[in-house]
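In response to the reviewer comment on reproducibility (Comment 2.3), we provide here a single inverse folding case reported in full, input and output, so that an independent group could reproduce the run without further information from us. The structure tokens appear first.
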């Protein structure tokens, strides 16, 4: 069974940076597309970024383009989300997600993902 554990969230001021990490258990990580989603209070979960099994392709939600980078380290079973120039509207719980089928394409659709972490809170204050 695949387990995803996020870390790296916290409280940061506007304009600051955070790097989120998601460590996956299980043998299939290196062949799984991964993604980050977020959910703000009172809002639906939304796509942030995705990455293919081998490190590409990557895709970003429009509001984070140029500020956020998704990457992965397959030997460490870890996917990262580097977030720079954070804004108050980035405040949310951030979730890591993985696809079950080997080498399935990454997707911006949350329904395409089979495995989810518990989330890590990111709070951006002015």
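Designed residues, in position order:
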């Amino acid at each position: 069974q695949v387990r995803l554990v996020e870390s790296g969230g916290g409280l940061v001021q506007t304009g600051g940076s955070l790097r989120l990490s998601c460590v996956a258990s299980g043998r299939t990580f290196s062949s799984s597309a991964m993604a980050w989603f977020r959910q703000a209070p009172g809002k639906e979960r939304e796509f942030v970024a995705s990455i293919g099994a081998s490190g590409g392709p990557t895709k970003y939600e429009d509001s984070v383009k140029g500020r956020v980078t998704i990457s992965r380290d397959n030997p460490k079973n870890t996917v990262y989300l580097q977030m720079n120039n954070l804004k108050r509207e980035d405040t949310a719980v951030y979730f890591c997600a993985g696809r079950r089928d080997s080498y399935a394409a990454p997707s911006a659709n949350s329904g395409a993902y089979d495995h989810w972490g518990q989330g890590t809170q990111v709070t951006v204050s002015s």
